[in-house]
Amino acid sequence: MSEVVKLERHDAIAIVTVNSPPVNALSAAVRRGIFENVKAAADDPQVKAIVLTCAGRTFIAGADITEFGKPPQPPSLAEVISGLENCPKPTIAAIHGTALGGGLEVALGCHFRVAVKDAKLGLPEVKLGLLPGAGGTQRLPRAVGPELAVKMIVGGDPIGAPEALKQGLIDEIVDETVSGGEAFARKVLAEKRPLRKLRDDDSKLAAAKADRSIFTNAVQALTKRARGLEAPFAAADAVGAAIDLPFEEGLKKEREGFMKLVTGDQSKAQRYAFFAEREAAKIAGVPEGTKPRKVERVAIIGAGTMGGGIAMSFANAGIPVTLIETGDEQLKRGMGVMQKNYEATAARGGIPADAPAKRMGLIDGKVGLEHVKDADLIIEAVFETMAIKKEVFTALDKHAKPGAVLASNTSYLNIDEIAKVTSRPQDVLGMHFFSPANVMKLCEIVRADKTAPDALATAVAVARKIAKVPAVVGVCDGFVGNRMLAQRGKQAEKLLFEGALPQQVDAVVTKFGMPMGPFAMGDLAGLDIGWRSRKDRGIKSEIADALCEAGRFGQKTGKGYYKYEQGSRAPLPDPEVEKLIDETLQRLGRKRRNVSDDEILERMMYPMINEGARILDEKIAARPSDIDVIWLYGYGWPIYRGGPMYYADQVGLKHIADRLSYYAKETNDPSLEPAPLLRRLAAEGKTFASLAQASKAAA
Q1: Is 351 exposed, middle or buried (0-12, 13-18, 19+ CB in 10 A)?
Q2: Which of 45, 58, 48 is nearest to 17 (CA)?
Q3: CB 354 within 8 A of CB 381
Q4: Would you give the end-to-end CA distance of the chain in angstroms?
Q5: Are the C-beta atoms of residues 505 and 492 closer than 8 Å to each other?
Q6: Residue 547, CA atoms < 13 Å, CB-side half-sphere
Q7: Three-class SS of residue 509?
Q8: pLDDT at residue 64 in the model
């Protein structure tokens, strides 16, 4: 019998317990253990009912992803589920923590399900570019009806136990899994309840069979935001098969869909992203056993867009915040914006109706920097100029308590310089949030020269606590994301001087899967910001300057690279811009040429990848996958393309290096020459992924 699954008998009730930390994933050993123990209990004449439960912090939280792509080991998950479903004695799944993916599929194979009050149940495979592959798309619609099933499978979000009870996914809420599962089993036996096999129960499919629009409308609403993704549509098809086909045929269709996705490029990229995110939370070069400092209270300086968004992120996680401004007026404005944001989300049903009041109750607005005195973590989110940042940190040094972590939410500036104005550089680091900070998941954590390991560990732990994805980076201009983005910006601008139009460049970038192109993004941010900064540094950019001189600052003035109709954010190509570009090129004595979409794509992506190679060489990022995490969660890189460094490996580094050399010559731009690391890997026929493998082997 298996080590990771054990069988006990409590009189007539067999308790089968999975104990495979950390999340009881369905490895070959776990599958075998469940299969053998359920069979043994079924064969034991003294056993009258079987309860399947898990030790540790959770029920089965899914398949063992590390087994994907390897030769399958028997028994298959489908065989395990059949064993439970066809068992002649009642089988009961007793759930705590999360029953996700294969874990919920196992529970759906049981005749009954009970769960503790705070358990969560879901089929999130779509987030890995997959669909449930062991009957989930066929049994869940029979358990809860196709409308909720499609929401859970195509949307990928779990539901809580109270909702699961209401919808018929579980039969009872219990206080504790073993005793609760056992008591429920005795009730089933006493009442002689018939064994419910979901595969044979079509009652909840009847309405959608009669009126398929119930299902198609639900699918439409869910796939609206699935641009470019294959899995949501394949998952919806599989759920549709539950309505249209007999159970066995539906299973076959589900299996075909699963096999197609699991071997496809999108799911490989999405599974890579899943592991990259986990890896990013591991901090390179921090001694084993470093404990984060205690953070019970947070202070945020600046109630503008960024400060307010950061404050909301903490309040959302139930952490009290002191929000500090220089004057009453600014504070009132900032608090008002947050209140409005919360109310709008509640009106849309995104948060409960009582959440705005609760969350605003955690944000304490104050005027004056002296109010940081009780905070364990202080995040500065003031205007992005070094002089102002230094002024704030000089004051923080006086008012912050000893051992408080002092973080700057800067997107470019040198944290070492900021740390120098304090007497405690070991407590100073960067926490670069992305706008809007209450929505965007990334937090670039900047390790300065003197940052203490436990301060760094604190920032990573706090970021995770407020549901952000942390990625640790080193100090350089623009850190990782903005430094790479600057290379794309440079090429976008050059393309206009060569004959491309803003709408052509943006169309190529959005077709690739990015949420916005560089020019629409410039309009959103405001073109006057770059204009001011160029004037400060004595730099000219003929086309962008001409737009600003004409008062075209972007969305806020209704005109930038595009024009915007009253009250709309949709960018519309503007003949005036084309005219202005033509006039500028004539004045500079340049001829427009026809620029192909392929060239645009290569010049948008390859220089960023090149900069990524420099960043790795300089040890600004510890791993190629950290760069990918930053782009996936901070810049809207399409998840099904895995991130820029992963994408580069798929395209082939030799091809990228060759094309960069070609463009360096064609456009007379030596900065496009391949970085030494890219050149070396390309020459050796290696990938960026090979760097991560080499460093793991060395460790």
Answers
A1: middle
A2: 58
A3: no
A4: 36
A5: yes
A6: 34
A7: helix
A8: 85
Query: How many residues would you count in the chain?
Result: 699
pLDDT at 350: 86
- pLDDT above 60 for 579: yes
Catalytic residues: 105, 125
Strand-pair category, 120-122 with 159-160:
antiparallel
For CA atoms 663, 664, 666, 669, the dihedral sign is positive
Is residue 248 very low, low, confident or very high in pLDDT (cuts 50, 70, 90)? very high
Q: Is pLDDT of 680 > 60?
A: yes
75 prior amide bond cis, ω within 30: yes
What does the pLDDT read at residue 63?
87
Among the residues of 618-675, which ranges form H helices? Answer: 624-634, 644-651, 653-666
Who's near 321: CB < 8 A, 6+ residues apart?
297, 298, 299, 300, 311, 314, 315, 362, 363, 364
Whether the link from the prior residue into 132 is cis, omega within 30° of 0, is no
Question: 494 CB contacts (<8 Å, ≥6 apart)?
Answer: 603, 667, 669
* One-character DSSP codes across 350-378: SS-TTHHHHHHTTEEEEESGGGGTT-SEE
CA distance 282 to 471: 9
Quick check: 338 and 360 in contact, CB under 8 A?
yes
CA-closest candidate to residue 420, choices 475, 479, 381: 475
The predicted structure's pLDDT at residue 76: 94
- Per-residue pLDDT tens over the stretch 362-396: 999 999 999 999 999 999 999 888 999 999 999 99
What value does the mean pLDDT take over residues 684-689?
Answer: 96
Question: What amino acid occupies position 20?
Answer: S
Q: Please compute the mean of the pLDDT values over residues 392-414 and round it to a whole number.
A: 94
How large is the greatest C-alpha to C-alpha distance in the chain, in angstroms? 95
Q: What is the C-alpha radius of gyration for the chain, rounded to an integer number of angstroms?
A: 28
Question: Beta-carbon neighbour count of residue 343 at 10 Å?
Answer: 16
Q: Pinpoint the alpha helices (H) of 550-619.
A: 575-587, 597-617
Task: Kindly state the DSSP code that residue 468 receives in the 8-state scheme.
Answer: -
CA distance 658 to 654: 6
Q: How far apart are CA 339 and CA 651, in angstroms?
A: 46
Could you give the angle at which helices 644-651 and 265-280 cross, rounded to 10 degrees? Answer: 140
Q: What is the mean pLDDT of the chain?
A: 94
Predicted TM-score (pTM) of the model is 0.91
Residue with structure tokens 């036996």? 189
pLDDT at 206: 92
Please, are residues 491 and 324 in contact by the beta-carbon 8 Å criterion? no
Pairwise CA distance, residues 696 & 699, whole Å = 5
Q: Indicate the residue type of 64.
A: D
Residue 186's CB is within 10 A of a number of other CB atoms, namely: 16
What are the DSSP calls for 131-197, one per residue? ---SSHHHHHHHHH-HHHHHHHHHH---EEHHHHHHTTS-SEEESSHHHHHHHHHHHHHHTTPPP--
Mutual orientation of helices 305-316 and 328-347 as an angle, nearest 10°? 50
Q: Which residue in this structure is represented by tokens 């796939």?
A: 223
Distance, in Å, from the CA atom of 554 to the CA atom of 558, rounded to the nearest integer, reads: 6
pLDDT of residue 214: 84
- Cα separation of 203 and 215, whole Å? 15
| Residue 619 backbone class (left: φ over 0; alpha: ψ -120 to 50; beta: rest) | left
